[in-house]
Amino acid sequence: MTELRSKYSKEIQDAKSVVTELLLESDDQWKMCKEWANGSVYYRKSPSMSGHIYKVVFELNIGLEKSIQSIYPAPRGFREKWDPNLERSVILKEDGESWLLLSVTKPAMSGLIAGREFIDLLTLDRLSLSRVIASGKSVEYPEIPKKSELVRGYNHPCGTLWEVISGNQVRISVMYHSDIGGRVPRRLVEKALPSVMQSDVEALLNYLKTL
How does DSSP classify residue 107? Predict the structure, then answer.
């Protein structure tokens, strides 16, 4: 076991266990709260924080590997090219299919809501030739202290499931399980989240049309 996996072995296992169980469940185990032509948003009560877990489900017709790259930031993917909320991301440490990632989001509402930063441990597992799952959660990383201009958020176990339907058609389920910190009431965050998730999917689809 290498350094990153050894240091964070419990966090890796905790995230993998929760994410695999929840994302491999059928949609019937979740409640739908939004549906449109290109996708659906579901939610269920969180076992680890006040509020709910959300997932958005949609399809891409670009093959499995490119679908994986579409969700992840550089150098693992190309999320920065389409995500209007992502300021930057940096891989702090890397260990095979596990990596420690710093993500910084842009301020919202003309600066009334400060930008957020997250330090997450992510792991990619290939369950089969047609099914891949990524799991992650926030971890402590003293080497990067909190900054006054940013709010340090915390991601509870979250992740993404990619499932090949046929040919290049891939079904993607992205699970959001975040405490964004700060003073924004949780009810306001949850009220906005389904529309934010829809906007993310549409931004990705619009970007893919330009390729």
Answer: P
Residue-wise pLDDT tens digits, 141-186: 999 999 888 999 999 999 999 999 999 999 999 999 999 998 888 9
pLDDT tens digits for range 1-41: 577 888 899 999 999 999 999 999 999 999 999 999 999 99
Domain borders along the chain are 3-84+127-135+156-209
Burial class of 59 by CB neighbour count within 10 A (0 to 12, 13 to 18, 19+):
middle
CB under 8 Å to 49, separation ≥6 — which residues?
Answer: 156, 177, 179
Other beta carbons within 10 Å of 210: 7
Q: What is the three-class DSSP state of 150?
A: coil
Question: What CATH architecture is 3-84+127-135+156-209?
Answer: 2-Layer Sandwich (3.30)
Report cis status (omega within 30 of 0) of the bond before 75: yes
- Which of 23, 54, 45, 43 minimizes the C-alpha distance to 171? 23
DSSP 140: -
